[in-house]
TrEMBL record:
This is Toxin PIN. Gene3D superfamilies: 1.20.1530.20. It comes from Psychrilyobacter piezotolerans. The lineage of its organism: Bacteria, Fusobacteriati, Fusobacteriota, Fusobacteriia, Fusobacteriales. Its main location: membrane. Signal peptide: none annotated. Residues 10-382 form the Cation/H+ exchanger transmembrane domain. The chain crosses the membrane at residues 6-23, 30-51, 57-74, 86-106, 118-139, 151-175, 187-207, 242-260, 272-290, 297-322, 362-382.
Length: 392
């Protein structure tokens, strides 16, 4: 037990220090935190493996907090304005990138079709760990608010991962002989979104009504946070395919800020403090899953595939934005914001290898390479371009 606590203490203190050092160099501190997590676990080997097993819980807690904060920043009129584009952003970029990686993996890496599909849709997911906090920061600063650009990207990204995971599950099922087919898994996407939205609304209303009777801000923060955490635990523990808890958690924040605004004001401070701690654990734990030594043999070929897939993804973003009132600069920002990968890739990279998939080592190496390339590019790109490309 002591080793586990010491490991978490190392990750937290080291992540804070390295994050601040990197921030002084005018880079996003999350890059320093991810790098420290990698250094501490992969190279220094000072993190207890048992701590990493519990790390998934901490990552989910941090994601829950930042998604609640994100939901609290979305207004009803903004959703009406960007709803269509958000839906298209959740479907088109991930689909075209996944198919592009799949095609290139067959032609360049020589992977069989099913393994290429597994790889394609591990890589294709955008990273909520990178994108969501960045968009929350833009909302606080008022950048892109006039056209609800951060809100559009937040909503699109929350469902983007569902598409990628549904397709990943389909191809894994085909390989293992347990799949009901791609169509069956695709049907889970709208159903899981609808179920997540309904449950999110019910939880928000329940929390709002209870909070009317119990005025303590600490209680209200624990109540809302605890209910949201419960949703996430239920989905991840029971692997529920028909429930998108990430979207549901954002809906909790959305309903509270639009229909129980006083409650949103009461819990925002507590959630902000929780995120300041949770962010360190989220990014350092993402870093612990990244082993750069695995990508050595495929670095050049793999990098070419990743960059081509990013170009295809960017085209998908631009297609999704057709018909919106965004100008060229704002469309370019949306392309940049949709580049980073980290959360899904670090979580899913090792699964094919663990399940005995032929080519699992290659799939893991490519997934890790995609994080190494895109997480810094996306995080730095968002930070450097936001003030130049978005209006206040």
């Amino acid at each position: 037990m002591l080793n586990i606590l010491v490991s978490f203490l190392i990750l937290f203190i080291g992540g804070v220090i390295v994050g601040k050092l990197v921030e002084k160099l005018h880079f996003p501190k999350l890059i320093g935190m991810i790098a420290f997590g990698c250094l501490a676990n992969v190279y220094l080997k000072i993190i207890d493996p048992v701590a990493l097993e519990f790390g998934g819980i901490l990552k989910n807690l941090a994601l829950v907090v930042v998604l609640l904060i994100a939901g609290l920043g979305i207004r009803k009129k903004q959703i009406k304005k960007v709803g269509r584009a958000a839906v298209l952003l959740s479907l088109i970029p991930v689909s075209v990138e996944g198919l592009a990686v799949m095609f290139l993996s067959i032609k360049v890496l020589g992977l069989p079709t099913i393994q290429a599909g597994i790889l394609g849709f591990i890589i294709a997911a955008v990273s909520p760990a990178v994108l969501v906090p960045a968009m929350v920061d833009l909302i606080k600063r008022g950048l892109g608010e006039k056209k609800a650009i951060p809100q559009m990207l937040l909503t699109g990204a929350s469902a983007d991962d569902s598409v990628a995971i549904a397709m990943f599950t389909s191809f894994m099922g085909m390989y293992l002989g347990t799949s009901g087919g791609i169509l069956k898994n695709l049907i889970t996407i709208p159903i899981s979104a609808a179920v997540g939205i309904v449950i999110g609304i019910l939880v928000a209303v329940m929390a709002g009504e209870i909070s009317k009777k119990i005025k303590s801000e600490i209680f209200q923060t624990i109540l809302v946070g605890g209910m949201a955490v419960g949703m996430r635990i239920i989905e991840t523990t029971y692997h529920l395919r028909y429930f998108n808890s990430l979207l549901g958690i954002m809906v909790i924040g959305y309903v509270i800020t639009n229909y129980y605004e006083w409650l949103g004001n009461n819990i925002m401070d507590g959630l902000g403090k929780a995120w300041s701690v949770g962010a360190v654990f989220l990014f350092t734990l993402v870093g612990t899953a990244i082993d750069p030594s695995l990508v050595g043999s495929i670095f050049y070929t793999g990098s070419m595939i990743v960059f081509i897939s990013l170009i295809v993804r960017s085209m998908g973003v631009l297609i999704a934005l057709i018909g919106t009132d965004l100008n060229l600069k704002e469309r370019l920002f949306c392309v940049i914001a949709y580049l980073p990968k980290a959360t899904v890739q670090s979580a899913k990279a090792g699964i094919p290898l663990q399940m005995g998939v032929v080519g699992g080592e290659l799939i893991q190496a490519m997934a890790i390479l995609s994080v190494i390339i895109t997480a810094p590019i996306g995080a730095i790109g968002i930070r450097l371009s936001a003030d130049k490309l978005l209006e206040k």
